[in-house]
Batch of 2 targets.
Target 1
Amino acid sequence: MDWLVELSASMGSVQRSTPLIATLATVDFLGRPRARSVVCRRIDEDDGSVWIASDARSEKNEHVREHKQAELVIWLPQPREQFRLFGNMTVLDLRDQTARRRQLWEDLSDAARAMFFWPTPGRPLESGADAFPKEMPAGEGPPESFEVLVLHPTQVERLQLQPHPHQRTRWRAERDWKAEPLNP
Ligand SMILES: Cc1cc2nc3c(=O)[nH]c(=O)nc-3n(C[C@H](O)[C@H](O)[C@H](O)COP(=O)(O)O)c2cc1C
């Protein structure tokens, strides 16, 4: 897929050492947009799916169980490019029989793993700091709260701010991922 080649080139590599932060937009039960920052833990080099670790009890996970459509926006300050990835989300939960969820769990830092043992995200704060462990080794395996949101892009747009005029390109699965130049 051309867009994945372009994204890899713009990022330097899809497997980077610094975390790739993106904005994930989902739709809530009333059809309202909600957006928040997430870490892209993995971008599959075969199908371009983007993997995000997220708490099963969080709002975004509840949203995507109901409304599968989501958009992820990546801003790359160097080379001043935005990528918008639109598509359907699947959720790797406790029922995932493959090793994929466990592998991602083992790849997390101890500090990132610990957050899945914190009290329910978004609820009123009622516990002291003791309820929020700082670190958690990989141990036995992921708890029920650990889920992986996997975005399967069907449309990708890139906006390049460096050239004049800016360049905007769209790729759509339904058009065999052929690059379509658009007005910026
Ligand atoms: C830089 C940054 C990275 C973040 N990465 C993640 C992440 O990978 N997964 C996640 O669930 N939340 C992440 N968060 C927290 C979310 O932005 C959000 O506050 C939290 O997931 C609750 O969102 P929700 O109630 O919409 O589900 C991150 C926040 C920041 C500031």
Target 2
Amino acid sequence: MGRLIEGYQDATPLLGDPVALRAEAEREGVLFFKGLLPRETVLALRRQVLEIIAGLGWLRPGSDPQSGLVDRDVLDKLTREQVESFHEGIPLEAYHAIQRLEDFHALAHHPRLIALYQALFDAPVLPHPRNIARVVLVNPFSAPTPPHQDYHHIQGTADVWTCWFTLGDCPRSMGGLSVAPRSHHDGLYTVHAAPGAGGIAINRDEDALDWIVDDFEAGDVLTVHSHTVHKALPHRNKDFVRVSCDFRYQSAEEPIHEASLRPHCGIFEWEELYAGWKRQDLQYYWKKHKLELAEWNADLHKPAY
Ligand SMILES: O=C(O)CCC(=O)C(=O)O
């Protein structure tokens, strides 16, 4: 029987000691940094995302969108068919609007994140441009992200680290990310189809693993190796929306699958996402690297039972 571990260890002191940071990363497969990103920067992006959600008519009339207070009368009328047609929790046009936000993608290049991954890889950092935003609401037709390893979804080098953080404070009642520390040492699991983001879960009794649970504040950053098992906790606070980001990072000297260089969701093109952007340096920036492209292994997704 696994243990429930209360709270992530803050690895901030290791940022000044890359050798110790890499040793901790290798041992645990997960690192947490309290308040790594400036709170005001995260909250400014939150406002932009919540204004898009407000445009759907999902937020409480008269409330400040920044509060994330939802209109249950509207949400309770969503049908299974509607919810199942959503992308990362919202209708496609709204997800597209989030993907078009320059500040969303710019945050992946924040100097504090680049410095973290530079120290972790000891090599030039390649932020994947395929950034993901997730909108999570309490409804009967969606499930929390099941226990999984990101490698099945990303492939390329195993040494990809996902950077996860919430846009706003996220007490565990709103479904934060729970990680099984040291699980990356067990190698890749086979999988089966499962409800929730990603659609696959590992073939392993999740109660046999240790799980870390915590509350998150805007600015906190959790990062996991691509073989580290993690899952979302169920969102139980029906009055508030949870919004989070997943950014991925690797060394520019390691192989990458070309899907990681395309916009998330498969149907957008960079040209449309970049429309109206001010900063040229955030666009097609990966082309300055001579990247080694990896093959896709479709067998990894084959359900083993
Ligand atoms: O935010 C979530 O629910 C899950 C995020 C996650 O596990 C991932 O993108 O790998």
